[in-house]
Amino acid sequence: MNINLTLIGQSIAFAIFVWFCVKYVWPPITEAMNARQKKIADGLSAADRASLDLELAQEKAAQELRTAKEEAAALIEQANKRASQIVEDSKSEARTEGQKLIDQAHAEIEQERVKARDALRAEVAALAVAGAEKILEKSVDANAHSEMLDKLAAEL
Amino acid sequence: MAADTPVDYIKHHLTNLTYGKLPEGYERADGSVVEETTWTMARTAQEAADMGFMAVHVDTMGWSIAMGVLFLGLFRFAAKKATSGQPGGLQNMVEMTVEFVQGIVRDVFHGNNPLIAPLALTMFVWILLMNTLKLIPVDYIPTIAHAMGLEYFKIVPTTDPNGTFGISIGVFLLILFYSFKVKGPGGFLKELSFTPFNHWALVPFNLVLELLALIIKPVSLALRLFGNMYAGEVVFILIALLPLWIQWTLNVPWAIFHILVVTLQAFIFTTLAVVYLSAAHEDH
């Protein structure tokens, strides 16, 4: 346990170690630690921001969804209206068309009836003439009696 | 082993490997007389003592420098590869140590000096490593050294007062330096003269008290560490004197206890050094 030069040697060694530590060991380690600290802080704030963004996005999405639903409902309503209108239109069209066809048919029938009556009337006239001829045993001059015949036909 | 009696054994284990100057005409242990002043290895404890101040404890210096280099090498290696991403095992350990020391400095040091934290780190890890050498069984290294022809070998630098005083003197010089730098020579002198009793008549009393307190700081730092380590070492040596089959019953608990002491002493030394340096930075 003698005090000797070791004392000074130890002091010098200590000084050199401290110098080396200050210069080459401490800065890179603390730098890395601080950088990591900053990274973590940044990451945390980014996560906070992201969750806020997510909330906003969700809200926006919900809103979009709502408007889309409203739009769709309006469209459907419009389409329904349109469809019923079309049905209504075609119904009335069909009705008028039908009426037209019926009217046409009535007219045709009338026409046919008139035609048939006329034909029948001519036939009856002819038959009447023929009957009269038989009765009179002589031909009736159609031309001479045409006036009477026509009057007869018209009476029928 | 050059130990015939327990006393010799203990003395042998507590003697450093000393390289020093023997004066002309000195009669060595084997009876030969030194013809002219020479630098040589001491062969006995008496020779080591007679070398006086002009001697170096080769084992203390060697092991303390080895531990310092180990510390700086390891930490420099980690520092070079330090990444701000996910740290590996070594970086984790280094960062834990750094954070521990930063915690001490933050709690204790109330100034702004970028030197203090790395200084504390150096002290803490270096002293810790030197103390840890103590857990190597007391006969291992001396036996190997003996086989290599070295008579004495004491591996724990902190059981050598030169080792602990070397560090504490470094701290003391820093205390003086920062006291002068921060307070200024006048301020420092004023602090020494007017505390604790702020009265001109008590200036001499204050001066004596404060100077004593100042000088006590490095002495207490060094002696506390040295005393704890030395006492522990002596107990280990005493246990090694017991019969082989019984040694473990005392050795194991003592070694486990010393894991605590080793860390605690490094911690105390560092913390107190930082406390003293903090006081040196306080300007009233």
From TrEMBL, chain A:
GO terms for molecular function: proton-transporting ATP synthase activity, rotational mechanism; proton-transporting ATPase activity, rotational mechanism. Pfam families: ATP-synt_B. Keywords: ATP synthesis, Cell inner membrane, Cell membrane, CF(0), Coiled coil, Hydrogen ion transport, Ion transport, Membrane, Transmembrane, Transmembrane helix, Transport. SUPFAM superfamilies: F1F0 ATP synthase subunit B, membrane domain (SSF81573). One of its GO terms (cellular component) is plasma membrane. It is found in: Cell membrane; Endomembrane system. Residues 51-122 form a coiled coil. HAMAP family: ATP_synth_b_bprime (MF_01398). F(1)F(0) ATP synthase produces ATP from ADP in the presence of a proton or sodium gradient. F-type ATPases consist of two structural domains, F(1) containing the extramembraneous catalytic core and F(0) containing the membrane proton channel, linked together by a central stalk and a peripheral stalk. During catalysis, ATP synthesis in the catalytic domain of F(1) is coupled via a rotary mechanism of the central stalk subunits to proton translocation. Belongs to the ATPase B chain family. This is ATP synthase subunit b. It comes from Marinobacter segnicrescens. The gene is atpF.
UniProtKB/TrEMBL annotation, chain B:
PROSITE patterns: ATPASE_A. The keyword Membrane applies. It is found in: Cell membrane; Membrane. The keyword Lyase does not apply. GO terms for molecular function: proton-transporting ATP synthase activity, rotational mechanism. Keywords: ATP synthesis, Cell membrane, CF(0), Hydrogen ion transport, Ion transport, Membrane, Transmembrane, Transmembrane helix, Transport. Gene3D superfamilies: ATP synthase, F0 complex, subunit A. It is a multi-pass membrane protein. The chain crosses the membrane at residues 61-79, 115-133, 163-180, 200-223, 230-248, 254-279. Belongs to the ATPase A chain family. Key component of the proton channel; it plays a direct role in the translocation of protons across the membrane. This is ATP synthase subunit a. The gene is atpB.
